[in-house]
Design brief:
The chain is mainly α. It has one domain (12-132). The chain is built from 7 helices and no strands. The protein has helices at residues 12-21, 25-38, 45-61, 72-81, 85-99, 105-112, 116-132. The radius of gyration is 13 Å and the shape is globular. The mean pLDDT is 93.
Length: 135
């Protein structure tokens, strides 16, 4: 049985991404985001979870997120990533791919139950923070 929560780091896919990507934060985040952007087909739940975590890490690195309650590993990862406008732009391109119910398993699963609106609100908030970081 896996971990499944609404937050961007409350699932196994995000945890695996943090563990695997901590050696090269910027390169790993870039690869995850570019993989989503270039995807022309169905995005499986693990890739969606990793992509959502990557987007949130970008926001945290820019100082547009809350670290309270996050694991030390996530906080260290975001600090190592630092502010990266190039990654912010990629995150803004990747978010619509994560949100699209027809092609994103993650969005589809959240919308099967009663939490679809909360999932959309989470992504909208993240998009707003990433947009605000450029201003």
């Amino acid at each position: 049985m896996g971990t499944w929560g609404l937050g961007p780091f409350e699932n196994d896919g995000a945890s695996d991404f943090i563990d695997e990507a901590s050696a090269a934060p910027a390169a790993s985040v870039r690869a995850a985001l570019q993989g989503l952007i270039k995807s022309r087909g169905y995005i499986d739940v693990d890739d969606g979870q990793a992509g959502l975590a990557a987007c949130e890490l970008v926001a945290l690195g820019l100082g547009y997120g809350k670290t309270a309650g996050l694991s030390k590993a996530v906080v260290r990862f975001a600090a190592a990533l630092g502010p990266r406008d190039d990654l912010r732009e990629l995150a803004l391109q990747a978010l619509p791919k994560i949100k699209e119910r027809k092609t994103s398993e993650l969005a589809g699963l959240w919308h099967e139950g009663d939490d679809g609106k909360a999932f959309d609100a989470l992504l909208d908030d993240l998009e707003s923070r990433l947009t605000a970081a450029s201003e």
